[in-house]
Amino acid sequence: MGMGFTLVEAGVVILQGQKCTHSAQSPLKTEAEALIWALSEMKNRGWDGVTVESDCQQLINIIRAGRDYSA
After folding, report:
1. CB 65 within 8 A of CB 34
2. Where is the RNase H type-1 domain (predicted)?
3. Would you state the torsion angle of the CA atoms of residues 35, 39, 45, 49, taken in this order, to the nearest 10 degrees?
4. Nearest by Cα to 38 from 71, 64, 5, 1
């Protein structure tokens, strides 16, 4: 299973990341791990105030609700 992210500013790709993972407990958990990884990479490079977009509605709903999820 693979995961990736793209940081875009003013229509220009600034940073991309891709990696493979061999253990996926669930698609939702993998989406969450990818988001955490992307945010960590951006923080490590000094980026803050980013807008996150995802195609995983379930993950976005969990984040917006501020609730914990155990896969």
Report:
1. no
2. 10-65
3. 130
4. 5
